[in-house]
C-alpha cells in the first residue's frame, strides 16, 4: 500500500494542470448529514502546532454546541501529525483524502501547501491554511487553496515602510531557503525597490540547518556593509539564528534586527520566556498581526487560560476563526442544495497495471460549490472582520510594530495597508485621517540593540581589508586645488586636504588609496574620470569635480565644499576723467527726454497762468523768454515767477519733485565718476559676449565648452581651449584681433586664483551658473551621505575656511576703492516719474480748456451756436482773442454788460405798466 501511495503522489504532482472533473453533483435535494468530516495536518511538537491543535478542537466544540450554525449537523475534525517530516505530510494528506473529508485545514508549511494543493485541485477538496503565508499561493495555479491569514506580501510592505521611514537604503535579508523564505524575500525586494531601497545581500540558510551551517552564513553577513538585518524564518529556527548571532557579537549597538511575525509568535506562545532567551531579542523590531479588541476576543482569551498554559498567539485566533469560517460556508452550502457525495476519478481508474490501487481516492462532488461559499463568507471573528477580496486575500491587513525591551515588549506603532505606518490604531486612522496628518511621527521612540535611543547608521565599511580605490585627476594647471608630488605618488592641494579632514571625522576607519588619472601633459576630463566609477575601476573620485546635471546621472556627490559658478574674465583699463565727464551720468536719451520735459512743463505752466498771472503776460518775445527761463530755473528752484492758479501749482509741485529726483541721481552718479577709480571694458558680461563674434577662451577638458555650446548656443568655432594660467594671460593680452581671445569663461574658483596676482584683468557681469565642487561616489553609496555630514562639520568648526586660506589665499591686487565702470543712468529708471508728471500736465490742460470753453460760451452765446464756415473762422479768432485776454478784464466786462442789460429791462417794464394803466382808465370811462 505505501508503494501505491508513492506512485499516486508522483502522478498527481505531474498531472496537476489537468482538467478538473465535474463529477456527479446532485443538488436537487439537500440532505444535511449528521456528521461532516474535516481534517487538519499540523506538526504537533512545533511552537505553532502545539497551540493550533488546541484552538482547532475548541472551535469545533463551540460550533457543535451552537445549534444555529449547522442546524444539527456536527463537525468531526481529525488531527494528523506530520512530525516535522515533509514525506509524512504528504502521506497524511493522501490518508485524509480516503475518508470522505470535505475540507482540509493545513498544512502548516508553505512548502507543503504547494505540494498538497495539487492533490486538493485534483480531488476538489478545499485546502484552508492559517499558517502558509507564501504570497505565491494566491496564484491561479492553486484554485482550491484558501489562506485564512494575511499574506507575507503585506508584512513585507510594512517592513519596507519601516526601512523607508528610518531613511535606510540597503538591507541584508536572512531567510530559510525554501518556498516560504525565498518568495517572502522576493516580495520584500519588490516592496523595497518601489520605495527607493534595496536588498544589498541575501543570506539563505538551508532547511534543517545546524548551528554550524547558520554560523557560516552569519559570518558572511558580518562582513557586509549593511547592518540592517531582516530575518524571515520559522519560529523553531529563529532562536537558533539569534544564539549564533550572539556568539558572533552581532546583537550589539550598530546592528538593526527586524523580523517578520515569527518572533512575536515565539514571545506570545512561550511567554514568559527565559531570561537568556529574552536577552537575545533586546532592541529587536518585529511585527504582530493586529486584532481589534472585542468582547469575543476577551472571552476567548479568558477561556484559553483555562485550557492551556501556553500563551495566546494570533495564529490561535486565526485557527479558531478558520473552523467557524468553514462552518458558515457549510451551512450556506447545505442551504443551496449541496450534498456530501464523492465519485471516482476517471484518470486514476484508467491507470494501467495492477500495482496501483486508487479506489479509496475520490473526488468531492460538491467541492467547487463549497469553495465558492467559503470565499463568500462575511463574518465577525476573533481576529476581526472575516472577508475575502477578489484575489482571495483577507481584507484589512494590519500589523502592530513591536519593540522588544527588557523583559517584555512595547508597541511603537501600527501598519495597515490603507494608511501605512501610524501611531494610531488602524480603525481610527481610517475614520480620522486628520489625526495622523497633524503629526510627522509615524512610530514612537525605539530602544535599539545596545540600549541606545539614537537611530543606528545602518551600515559600516566592509571589514574585509579592501582599500577604496580613489581616482584623482593629475592636473597640470591650478595645482593649488589638486597636485601630484613630483618625488612621490602622493597628492596634495585644497581638495585633498578637505577629503582627508572629512574622512578623519567619520566614526569608523575608511582605508583608501589615491590613484592618478591623466598623462600629466594636459588636464584630464573629469567627466571621463567619473564614468570609471560605474565601470568599477574606481570606488570614488576626489578632486576639483564640478557638480553638474549630467554628472549627477553618473555618480552621487557629497555636499559641495567649494561654491563655484561660471564667470567671464576680460582685460580692463582704468577710466580717467575727461573734459566732458559731467555728461556721463545720463545716457543721451535721458538727456533728451529731460530737456523736452523742461520745455513741456514750462509751456504747460505758461498756459495755465497766462490768463490770471501778469508775470506770464506781455509781448510774445517776452513771453517766450519767460517760458524758457521758468522751465530751466526750476532745476535749481530759482524761478522768480509765482503761480496763482490751482492747476498751475499742482503741476509745478509734481515737476519740482521730479527735478529733485533727477538732480539727486545726477549728483550721486557724477560724484562716483569723479572720485572713484574705475575699470572699463567693452564686454559687460555673458550677454554682451554672446552678441559679439569675438573668440572666447575656456579651460581645456572642462564642462565649460559643452555648456556654452549646448545651453547658450555659442558657435563652437569661437571657443579656444586653454590649459595654463599663463595661456589665459597671453590670450587675453593679445586680444581677438591678434590671435588671442576677447574673454575667458571658467569657474569662479579658478578665476579668483588667476586674478589674485593679475590686476590687469577682472570679472565682468554676474555668475551665470550656480554649482559647486564635491566628491563623487557610486550611486546609492552611503559613504556619500556620511562624507556630506563630515564636510558640514568642517564648515561649522572653521576647518574648511582654514584649508581654503592655506592653499588659495594670495596677496590680492591693490584695488581698494576701485570698482568696475558703472553704466549710465538710463531713461528706464525714471520712466515712472516722467509718466506721472506728463499725465498730470495732460489732465491739468484738459480741465483748463474745459473751463475756458465753458466761460467762452457764456460770454459769446451767439458765436458758440453759429455753424457757417466764415462764422466758425470768426469764432476761432474770437476764441483765441478771448483766451489771450486776462481773465480779470473779461470778468469786469461781463459785469458791465450785465448792469447795462438790467437797466434797459427796468425802463422797458415801466413803460408797459403806464400804457396798461391808461388803457384801463379809458375802458372804465366808456363804461360809465
Automatic annotation (TrEMBL):
It is a multi-pass membrane protein. Pfam families: ANF_receptor, Lig_chan. Residues 893-928 are annotated as: Disordered. The chain crosses the membrane at residues 589-608, 650-674, 833-851. The keyword Transmembrane helix applies. It is found in: Membrane. One of its GO terms (cellular component) is membrane. InterPro entries: ANF_lig-bd_rcpt (IPR001828), GABAb_receptor_plant_PBP1 (IPR044440), Ionotropic_Glu_rcpt (IPR015683), Iontro_rcpt_C (IPR001320), Iontropic_Glu_rcpt_pln (IPR017103), Peripla_BP_I (IPR028082). Keywords: Disulfide bond, Glycoprotein, Ion channel, Ion transport, Ligand-gated ion channel, Membrane, Receptor, Signal, Transmembrane, Transmembrane helix, Transport. Residues 1-21 form the signal peptide. It comes from the Eukaryota. Residues 469-810 form the Ionotropic glutamate receptor C-terminal domain. Coiled coil: none annotated. One of its GO terms (biological process) is signal transduction. Its main location: membrane. Disulfide bonds join 759-813. The keyword Glycoprotein applies. One of its GO terms (molecular function) is ligand-gated monoatomic ion channel activity. Belongs to the glutamate-gated ion channel (TC 1.A.10.1) family. Glutamate-gated receptor that probably acts as non-selective cation channel. This is Glutamate receptor. The lineage of its organism: Eukaryota, Viridiplantae, Streptophyta, Embryophyta, Tracheophyta.
Amino acid at each position: 500500500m505505501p508503494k501505491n501511495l508513492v506512485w499516486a503522489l508522483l502522478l498527481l504532482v505531474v498531472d496537476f494542470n489537468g482538467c478538473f472533473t465535474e463529477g456527479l453533483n446532485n443538488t436537487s435535494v439537500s440532505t444535511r448529514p449528521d456528521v461532516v468530516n474535516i481534517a487538519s495536518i499540523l506538526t504537533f511538537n512545533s511552537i505553532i502546532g502545539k497551540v493550533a491543535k488546541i484552538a482547532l478542537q475548541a472551535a469545533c466544540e463551540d460550533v457543535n454546541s451552537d445549534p444555529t450554525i449547522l442546524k444539527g449537523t456536527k463537525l468531526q475534525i481529525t488531527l494528523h501529525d506530520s512530525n516535522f517530516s515533509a514525506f509524512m505530510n504528504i502521506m497524511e494528506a493522501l490518508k485524509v483524502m480516503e475518508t470522505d473529508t470535505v475540507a482540509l485545514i493545513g498544512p502548516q508549511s508553505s512548502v507543503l501547501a504547494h505540494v498538497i494543493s495539487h492533490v486538493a485541485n485534483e480531488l476538489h477538496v478545499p485546502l484552508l491554511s492559517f499558517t502558509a503565508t507564501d504570497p505565491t499561493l494566491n496564484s491561479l495555479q492553486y484554485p482550491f487553496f484558501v489562506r485564512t491569514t494575511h499574506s507575507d506580501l503585506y508584512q513585507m510592505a510594512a517592513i519596507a515602510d519601516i526601512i523607508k521611514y528610518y531613511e535606510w537604503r540597503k538591507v541584508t535579508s536572512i531567510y530559510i531557503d525554501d518556498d516560504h523564505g525565498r518568495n517572502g524575500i522576493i516580495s520584500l525586494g519588490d516592496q523595497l525597490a518601489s520605495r527607493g531601497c534595496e536588498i544589498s545581500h541575501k543570506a539563505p540558510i538551508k532547511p534543517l540547518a545546524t548551528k554550524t551551517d547558520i554560523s557560516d552564513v552569519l559570518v558572511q553577513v558580518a562582513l557586509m556593509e549593511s547592518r540592517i538585518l531582516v530575518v524571515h524564518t520559522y519560529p523553531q529556527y529563529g532562536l537558533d539564528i539569534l544564539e549564533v548571532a550572539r556568539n558572533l557579537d552581532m546583537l550589539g549597538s550598530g546592528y538593526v534586527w527586524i523580523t517578520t511575525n515569527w518572533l512575536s509568535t515565539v514571545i506570545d506562545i512561550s511567554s514568559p520566556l527565559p531570561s537568556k532567551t529574552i536577552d537575545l531579542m533586546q532592541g529587536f523590531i518585529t511585527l504582530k498581526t493586529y486584532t481589534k479588541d472585542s468582547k469575543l476576543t476577551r472571552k476567548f482569551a479568558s477561556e484559553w487560560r483555562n485550557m492551556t498554559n501556553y500563551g495566546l498567539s494570533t495564529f490561535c485566533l486565526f485557527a479558531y476563526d478558520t473552523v467557524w469560517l468553514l462552518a458558515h460556508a457549510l451551512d450556506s452550502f447545505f442551504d443551496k442544495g449541496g450534498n456530501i457525495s464523492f465519485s471516482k476519478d476517471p484518470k486514476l481508474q484508467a491507470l494501467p497495471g495492477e500495482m496501483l490501487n486508487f479506489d479509496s481516492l475520490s473526488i468531492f462532488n460538491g467541492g467547487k460549490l463549497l469553495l465558492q461559499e467559503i470565499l463568500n463568507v462575511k463574518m465577525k471573528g476573533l481576529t476581526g472582520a472575516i472577508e475575502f477580496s477578489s484575489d482571495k486575500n483577507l481584507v484589512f491587513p494590519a500589523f502592530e510594530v513591536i519593540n522588544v525591551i527588557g523583559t517584555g515588549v512595547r508597541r511603537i506603532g501600527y501598519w495597515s495597508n490603507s494608511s501605512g505606518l501610524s501611531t494610531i490604531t488602524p480603525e481610527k486612522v481610517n475614520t480620522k485621517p486628520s489625526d495622523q496628518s497633524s503629526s510627522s511621527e509615524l512610530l514612537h521612540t525605539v530602544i535599539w540593540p545596545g540600549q541606545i535611543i539614537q537611530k543606528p547608521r545602518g551600515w559600516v565599511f566592509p571589514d574585509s581589508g579592501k582599500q577604496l580605490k580613489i581616482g584623482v585627476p593629475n592636473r597640470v594647471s591650478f595645482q593649488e586645488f589638486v597636485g601630484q608630488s613630483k618625488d612621490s605618488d602622493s597628492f596634495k592641494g585644497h581638495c585633498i586636504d578637505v577629503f582627508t579632514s572629512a574622512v578623519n571625522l567619520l566614526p569608523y576607519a575608511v582605508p583608501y588609496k589615491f590613484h592618478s588619472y591623466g598623462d600629466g601633459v594636459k588636464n584630464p576630463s573629469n567627466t571621463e574620470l567619473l564614468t570609471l566609477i560605474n565601470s568599477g575601476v574606481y570606488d570614488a573620485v576626489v578632486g576639483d569635480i564640478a557638480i553638474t546635471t549630467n554628472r549627477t546621472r553618473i555618480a552621487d556627490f557629497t555636499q559641495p565644499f567649494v561654491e563655484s559658478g561660471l564667470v567671464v574674465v576680460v582685460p580692463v583699463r582704468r577710466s580717467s576723467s575727461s573734459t566732458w565727464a559731467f555728461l556721463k551720468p545720463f545716457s543721451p536719451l535721458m538727456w533728451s527726454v529731460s530737456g523736452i520735459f523742461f520745455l513741456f512743463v514750462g509751456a504747460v505752466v505758461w498756459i495755465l497762468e497766462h490768463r490770471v498771472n501778469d508775470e506770464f503776460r506781455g509781448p510774445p518775445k517776452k513771453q517766450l523768454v519767460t517760458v524758457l527761463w521758468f522751465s530751466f530755473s526750476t532745476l535749481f528752484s530759482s524761478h522768480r515767477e509765482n503761480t496763482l492758479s490751482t492747476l498751475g501749482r499742482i503741476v509745478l509741485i509734481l515737476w519740482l519733485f521730479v527735478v529733485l529726483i533727477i538732480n539727486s541721481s545726477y549728483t550721486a552718479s557724477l560724484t562716483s565718476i569723479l572720485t572713484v577709480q574705475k575699470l572699463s571694458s567693452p564686454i559687460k558680461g555673458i550677454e554682451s559676449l554672446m552678441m559679439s563674434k569675438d573668440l572666447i577662451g575656456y579651460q581645456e577638458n572642462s564642462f565649460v565648452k559643452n555648456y556654452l555650446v549646448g545651453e547658450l548656443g555659442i558657435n563652437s568655432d569661437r571657443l579656444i581651449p586653454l590649459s595654463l594660467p599663463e595661456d589665459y594671460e597671453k590670450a587675453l593680452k593679445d586680444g581677438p584681433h591678434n590671435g588671442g581671445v576677447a574673454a575667458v569663461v571658467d569657474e569662479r574658483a579658478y578665476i579668483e586664483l588667476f586674478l589674485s596676482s593679475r590686476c590687469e584683468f577682472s570679472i565682468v557681469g554676474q555668475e551665470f551658473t550656480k554649482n559647486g565642487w564635491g566628491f563623487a561616489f557610486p550611486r546609492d553609496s552611503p559613504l556619500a551621505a556620511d562624507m556630506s555630514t563630515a564636510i558640514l562639520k568642517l564648515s561649522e568648526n572653521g576647518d574648511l575656511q582654514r584649508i581654503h586660506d592655506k592653499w588659495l589665499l594670495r596677496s590680492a591686487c591693490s584695488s581698494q576703492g576701485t570698482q568696475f565702470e558703472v553704466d549710465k543712468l538710463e531713461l528706464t529708471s525714471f520712466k515712472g516719474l516722467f509718466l506721472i508728471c506728463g499725465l498730470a500736465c495732460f489732465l491739468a490742460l484738459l480741465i483748463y480748456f474745459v473751463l475756458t470753453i465753458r466761460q467762452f460760451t457764456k460770454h459769446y452765446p451767439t458765436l458758440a451756436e453759429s455753424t457757417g464756415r466764415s462764422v466758425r473762422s470768426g469764432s476761432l479768432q474770437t476764441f483765441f482773442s478771448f483766451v489771450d485776454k486776462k481773465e480779470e478784464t473779461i470778468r469786469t466786462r461781463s459785469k458791465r454788460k450785465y448792469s447795462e442789460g438790467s437797466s434797459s429791462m427796468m425802463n422797458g417794464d415801466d413803460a408797459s405798466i403806464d400804457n396798461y394803466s391808461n388803457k384801463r382808465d379809458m375802458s372804465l370811462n366808456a363804461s360809465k
